[in-house]
Design goal:
mainly alpha
Length: about 170
């Protein structure tokens, strides 16, 4: 079943992706595949190079054929789906590590639009580091931040990707 984050994405976006279209891909991704995809994301693997992405590309292709998506729509839906998979999987891992994901979400939601749509993609490094420092001065302890920096970064990057897709912004 498609999660609530996907429905929230749909409510926020100007594009016409339907719950049914996102569910077509999301429902095919097993928990094991989601874990491998998240690992690939953390390793910086791309959509066609990571170990978990072969199956994902197959799922997207099946849905693109079923719904007659053009290339631009396929890219938007696959990007949105990857953002949702990453968000869900990193949320699960952060929760398992004992971090307060709701507090991280609240912090993210309080950031300016520049951070929420450009971090990890095209925000200058100095600004990004300054913004992230406030996370470790507040909802996440410095010790937890150091211990789980990769997961926190993956989670926030997945949220940025999801928001960019929702707003119709490019991912490059």
């Amino acid at each position: 079943m498609l999660n609530l984050m996907a429905m929230a994405l749909l409510a926020a976006q100007p594009m016409a992706e339907s719950v049914e279209e996102l569910a077509c891909v999301m429902d095919q991704v097993s928990p094991a595949e989601a874990g491998v995809i998240a690992d690939d994301m953390l390793a910086g693997e791309g959509a066609t190079t990571g170990a978990g992405f072969g199956g994902f590309v197959g799922h997207v292709t099946t849905c693109a054929d079923r719904y007659g998506w053009d290339e631009a729509r396929t890219v938007r839906i696959s990007s949105a789906t990857l953002g949702l998979i990453g968000t869900r999987e990193f949320r699960r891992r952060l929760t398992a590590a004992g971090l307060d994901v709701a507090a991280i979400d609240a912090w993210f939601d309080e950031q300016d639009d520049e951070f929420r749509t450009q971090a990890f993609i095209d925000l200058d490094q100095e600004t990004q580091e300054q913004d992230l420092a406030t996370l470790f001065d507040g909802p996440v302890s410095e010790a937890d931040g150091e211990a789980h920096a990769e997961l926190i970064g993956g989670y926030l990057a997945a949220r940025v990707v999801t928001l960019r897709v929702a707003q119709g912004l490019p991912l490059e």
